[in-house]
Write a structure and sequence with these properties.
The complex is a heterodimer of chains A (347) and B (271). Chain A is mainly α. Chain A has helices at residues 9-32, 40-48, 57-93, 100-103, 105-119, 130-149, 157-182, 189-195, 203-220, 224-230, 234-239, 244-266, 272-284, 288-312, 321-343. Chain A has a single domain (9-343), classed as ABC transporter involved in vitamin B12 uptake, BtuC. Chain A is built from 15 helices and no strands. Chain A is globular and about 65 Å long. Chain B has one domain (4-224): P-loop containing nucleotide triphosphate hydrolases (Rossmann fold). In chain B, 32% of the residues lie in helices and 27% in strands. Chain B has helices at residues 44-51, 74-78, 96-101, 116-129, 144-157, 174-189, 201-207, 225-228, 231-238, 266-270, and strands spanning 4-15, 18-29, 33-38, 59-64, 67-68, 81-84, 162-166, 193-197, 210-215, 218-223, 242-246, 252-256. Chain B has a six-stranded mixed beta sheet with strand order 6-7-8-3-9-10, with helices on both faces. Chain B has a four-stranded antiparallel beta sheet with strand order 2-1-4-5, covered by helices on one side. In chain B, strands 11-12 form a two-stranded antiparallel ribbon. Chain B starts with a strand and ends with a helix. The chains are: A mainly alpha (347), B alpha/beta (271).
Amino acid sequence: MTGASPLSPRRLVLVLLVLLTFLFLGSTLALMAGPAWLPPREVLRILLGFPTSSEMSLPAGDIVLRIRLPRLLLGGIVGASLSVSGVLFQALLRNPLADPFVLGVSGGAALGGILVLGFGGVLGMGYAAVPPAAFLGSIATALLLFAVAGARGRLSSTSLLLTGVVFNAIASAAIVFVASLSGLSEGTSIFLWLIGSLSAARESSTLLCGLFLLAGLVIVWPQARRLDLLALGEESAAQLGVDVERVKRILLAATSLMVGAAVSVSGLIGFVGLIIPHFLRLLLGPDHRLLVPASALGGALFLILCDTAARTVLAGGELPVGAITALAGGPLFLFLLRRQQGKGLLP
Amino acid sequence: MSEIVLSFEGVSLRLGGRSILHGIDLALLRGEVLGLLGANGAGKTSLLRIATRVLAPDAGGVRLSGRPLEEFSRAELARRIALVPQRSEVPFPFPAAEIVRMGRAPHLGLLGFESREDVALADRAMEEVGIRELARRSILELSGGEQQLVAIARGLVQGTPILLLDEPTAFLDLRHRVHVLRLVRGLARAGRAVLVVSHDLGLAARFCDRLALLSAGEVLSAGAPADVLTPAHLRRAFGIEATVFRAPDGTPVVLPEGDARGPGSPGWTSK
């Protein structure tokens, strides 16, 4: 609870253990769910490598280990990356409405990725060049954003929305343009990029994405108290001993890494970075020492559950998970905006 | 006794092509409360921002215990100088107690958790300022005055030998103004040095050991309150006519002239 007592290491560990338990339960559900429903016992036996009891054991093992588990891992990693990135942007821009998708940073990453997908072949670049290109796209967009935010280091909700809308419009148009020019628009791949989907899970990309997330967390978590201080304003943070410019550069690099990696494997999944931090702040308070790791776990759980829904709600087909997160996140965004304006908190 | 802890030496500053400060010489002594007065835009806040190295002066410099300010790391500086800003807008619903505890940030270890001692210091500061009952409330729900008290407690908890306060009492009622200024005076008596920006001439005269009056980016006058608060100085600094009385203990009391009484005002001639 957001009481007067300070955050102790004990409380931190306790909360994270509870979240891990939920993540485990959610993951089990995700492995059970699909066209062929498996009982939880069966899933656990397969995961632990025991021989399965049912007569359809071999396909069940394949379904869990080869189809559902890789997708689960990717969903968890992407969800955690986007959610932590949301926390970082909110702290850096000092606005709880910030989110890599809303700000257009994801769009910039997608544009970088699609440029390589479309034209990289000409230059001899393969699929491996997509994540770095997405990283460059996201960092370029984020730098532009901070240029817009200006010297005060705070982006008002109005400029946040306007820049986000414009960046996203430019990115989407450019993506469609590039895709049409390079013949990528055939099939559904471009559609999946724009709306965001986990259906292209591959082992190599999951591993890479996981490494980027890990690197991001290792960089970000030790800076968590500085994020709290930044909430007081950049001058107050500096006055309390924070080297503001350096911290901003470090965090910007970390978040661009995570967003770039996530977008390069899953496209534009929106609002995860808005929903999860908001929800967890209500539940646990705004202390970033707790919020950063909790958002990683919460974001992972959220995207895994959304993807499970995406795979199962349509019999015989699947929805892109980005459609589900957008349907959940869009209204929340509007609600938060309305409340901010009601309080006269931000211009 | 009169050890100089912070000194501005020929500090000049230009912002956006406009000259804000020129050639400011001012010293803050250990154990004193120095009041910084001046009209809006006179450069008071800029001076504080230079002292915390948020702004760099175009000419001149600041010395902290005799050493140039630039020689200190950000963290060292944060353990020596605390600044209570005029206003800060916090975008997240931190409990007031947490904001106060953030004042301990310059003293935290690697893991970034407050020790029991840090927490006790924060609790005591809230007690001293008189905001214990606000501890659990979200900073977003507090009034301007309450937020100001939280910021003051945060400044106290930083435990620095130098405390800079930028209009700490602007949003406070009279009772809280007096309480805060008494508190600040107590800190100075205990050996800290306090620089307080104020627009309240009466309280400044009452609670500050010395006053410095800024006008158009220069120190117009500095010294004992009775020497600084003269009708001539007030006319130059604020562009007002005022009568200065003496309280029984010698403290100057400034009474600005009203429209009807001022020489040269319409009310004066029509009578």
